[in-house]
Amino acid sequence: MDDQVQARIGGIVGSNDVVLFMKGTPIFPQCGFSSTAIQILERLGVEFETVDVLRDPEVRAGVKIFSDWPTVPQLYVKGEFVGGSDIMMEMFQSGELEELMTDKAVARAA
């Protein structure tokens, strides 16, 4: 994969406390998994950024290589890959995801 794309993804991940690579936007998710991921983040009440991979095929392919994870959405917290919507759901239900956000001192949404 193109080093520039990987650097761009790394920059996005590194410059946002919480970033979700997803299909669509928070207001108009383009798949059920992305919709689920957004709902979880909104329930947690944390500030987060999103990247619509449907707008950029290079990022869509590149993020899968960046994380070594085959699907989107993908959640990153403080530069670390957390997982997709299935892992997010498991962590949310167990309280682990909220604990992670607290431990990493992620800002709460205003």
TrEMBL record:
Q: What InterPro entries does its record include?
A: Glutaredoxin, GRX_PICOT-like, Monothiol_GRX, Monothiol_GRX-rel, Thioredoxin-like_sf
Q: Name one GO molecular function term.
A: disulfide oxidoreductase activity
- Keyword tags: 2Fe-2S, Iron, Iron-sulfur, Metal-binding, Redox-active center
Tell me the domain of life. Bacteria
UniProt domain Glutaredoxin: residue ranges: 18-82
User: Which Pfam family would be a valid example here?
Assistant: Glutaredoxin
Q: Which residues cross the membrane?
A: none
Give the range the annotation lists for the signal sequence. none
Q: Which residues bind [2Fe-2S] cluster?
A: 31
Q: Which family does it belong to?
A: Belongs to the glutaredoxin family. Monothiol subfamily.
List, alphabetically, the NCBIfam families matched.
Grx4 family monothiol glutaredoxin (TIGR00365)
> Can you say what this protein is called?
Glutaredoxin
Starting at the broadest rank, the lineage of the source organism is: Bacteria, Pseudomonadati, Pseudomonadota, Alphaproteobacteria, Sphingomonadales
